[in-house]
């Protein structure tokens, strides 16, 4: 079964704070006073493996714990995604500056705006992506609902395969028709770390996805891939490869609940019953936008 998301509707019914909604309606300029008053600060989770330091910025719950990852590779940086809102993007920018290292490559992993909405707030950072991802998000990015991410729309294309950044091998992969139409993944084979973004969530309700059957198949492939044992995910804290199995079980449950439910509200209620400890009701509520039964 394939279900297509109306990407333009990401913020409809969003469970954001009143302050965050006000920011979205304002001029989107990141100002520290607004960031402190409207949203709690995000959190940064850092670790080092085999000479490479990984920083995962996790947005506060009001911004659905969406992540950006800043990786120190020798004297250069790799940045994955910008987060969604100006205050959180400003915090990612502050993290980048705190390293005192230049950005070699920044990229957007997929077309959903919670991962690129903050691009326009990150001055001096140009974002690459795959041509297909850029075209998938272009219409929404230029429709006026978001500050136009010019550095992404006019940015370079990312090449798949293995390259070196700061002397460290990085493998860029792409997976089709999972949570999104196309998902970029970065694998660091010497560190056994993978930035998988929205292929795996951690403790946050998953978006319904584009093709759940194929998403399950992709996760089964990743589960058997020995190239990594640490995951940096798209929503929530970094985790271990064991959470691929957790994600598999979740997507299987989600698919079955979706098939059995008569209405989006029934689906939402049943997923809350199945995963009572999860957060991100806004993402769960996207079922109403995907629903086409």
**SS content category:** alpha+beta
Low-confidence stretches: 1-37
Named CATH topology: Metallo-beta-lactamase, Chain A
- The average pLDDT is 88
What's the number of domains? 1
The number of helical segments is 10
Total strands: 12
Largest sheet: 6 strands, mixed
Strand order of the largest sheet: 1-2-3-4-5-6
User: Helical amount among residues, as a percent range?
Assistant: 25-40%
Strand content: 15-25%
Global geometry: globular
CATH superfamily: Ribonuclease Z/Hydroxyacylglutathione hydrolase-like
Radius of gyration: 18 Å
CATH class: Alpha Beta
The rounded distance between the terminal residues' Cα atoms is 10 Å
CATH second-level architecture: 4-Layer Sandwich
Give the SSE string: HHEEEEHEEHHEEEEHEEHHHH
Would you kindly provide a written description of the structure presented here, covering whatever features stand out?
The structure is a single chain. The chain has helices spanning 18-25, 32-38, 86-98, 131-141, 150-153, 212-223, 242-260, 264-274, 281-285, 287-290; strands spanning 43-49, 52-58, 67-73, 76-80, 103-107, 127-128, 161-165, 168-176, 182-188, 193-201, 230-235, 239-240. By secondary structure, the protein is an alpha+beta fold. A hairpin with a 2-residue loop joins strand 1 and strand 2 (52-58). Helix 2 packs across helix 3 (86-98). The longest helix has 19 residues, at 242-260. 46% of the residues are buried.
